[in-house]
């Protein structure tokens, strides 16, 4: 039996873009955006934890091969795919990845169906900043950035870049000022995150909730899963996604 056999397959289309999705659970909506190389067994396992905690979880399939484990070949294959795709910004600064529009549309549809204060969105690693870009839309009430690593931090400016256009950053700041908090998760010595946590604190202050774990791990809720990080996500979603 495959790991996704108990999930309901579907798809979402917006502005001429289509991606497959997997859905499971009941309760408030949460969109889990997988890391490189794709919907690995540990990403799916994290989705199952959220389902067990009482959420309707939707996992888009953006690249890679679902259920394929993390490894050098799968990572290399996915990197080739994202580096040539027009949906993702890999190195450019002060730009929002085009896939953000598709993800916002998915969030709006899920919120319209389920109601409540809004939906949660969690991106990780390469997709970590996508949850911040989704926050531009009012349907996203609980954005979580797990080790955001794009654009690749190969220079000081890229290490501080939030994968957002100036206009989208202004909207994020306005929403943060209006009470929408952002949760960030990272291992403190993870070089892939660059200086983004410091930049987010500069931009939105106390609205950015930092969970920084000791060590040089990377994938906070999957490959190097930390119970502290998972508990922080569950608490954040519980506080922000359940109606009063």
**What is the second-level CATH architecture?**
3-Layer(aba) Sandwich
Named CATH topology:
Rossmann fold
CA-CA gap between termini = 39 Å
Q: How confident overall, as mean pLDDT?
A: 97
Shape: globular
Helix-strand category:
alpha/beta
Percentage of β-strand residues: 15-25%
Q: Order of strands across the widest beta sheet? A: 1-2-4-3-5-6-7-8
Radius of gyration: 16 Å
> How many DSSP E strands?
8
Low-confidence stretches: none
The CATH class assignment is Alpha Beta
Number of helices: 8
Question: What number of domains?
Answer: 1
CATH homologous superfamily identity: Alpha/Beta hydrolase fold, catalytic domain
The percentage helix is 25-40%
| Helix-strand sequence | EEEHEHHEHEHHEHEH
Largest sheet: 8 strands, mixed
Structure description:
With 244 residues, the chain is an alpha/beta fold. It has one domain (8-241): Rossmann fold. It has eight helices and eight strands; from the N terminus they run βββαβααβαβααβαβα. It has helices at residues 41-52, 72-84, 99-114, 130-134, 156-160, 166-177, 196-204, 227-241; strands at residues 8-14, 17-24, 29-33, 56-61, 119-124, 140-146, 182-187, 208-213. Strands 1-2-4-3-5-6-7-8 form an eight-stranded mixed sheet, with helices on both faces. α4 links the parallel β5 (119-124) and β6. The chain is globular, with a radius of gyration of 16 Å. The termini are far apart. The mean pLDDT is 97.
